[in-house]
Amino acid sequence: MKKYRNFMSTVAGLATISLAAGCQEQHATETAAQTPAATAAAEHGHEHGAGPHDGTLADWGGGKYHVEFTVDHDKQEATVYVLGSDEKSPAPIKTDKISLTIGDPELMAELLPVPLEGESDGLSSRFVGTHEKLGIVQEYAGTITAEIEGTPYTGDFKEEAHEHK
Length: 165
Prior knowledge:
Strand order of the largest sheet: 1-2-3-6-5-4-7-8
Distance between the termini: 26 Å
Low-confidence stretches: 1-48
CATH topology of the largest domain: Immunoglobulin-like
Number of strands: 8
Radius of gyration: 18 Å
Order of helices and strands: HHEEEEEEEE
Helix content: 10-25%
Number of helices: 2
CATH class of the largest domain: Mainly Beta
CATH architecture of the largest domain: Sandwich
Oligomer: single chain
């Protein structure tokens, strides 16, 4: 079993190095041929790390917004934070709901605005919803969608296993 883990770690490491080299080469080519706005969108096609609330990030609108998915299994509750292009700062939006779709276990939930302190005038950067299947402890993958000022935004996310402290 230990040999298998070592082998898989080596394979994963080599894949990461190859991917990073390929991304750098591709990025250099794209940068030379694209406008700044298109380049920013291309850069956001890559996986994102953990957000400021230790959740999983997804891109909305080529980097204009990011959304961070978090889940509290005990409460069977999902919270999505809308963040700015820096992937850190709250970006309050005006919408009545965010839709969350997860494939396994299959579920759809509407997350309603729960404004953070200081957010007003119908703007919110935090959206919360519950579903009994969110009580299942696992890594989730799905899609977060909403409409902001008539423009639809969609972002896919995939949680990765990590150590809880």
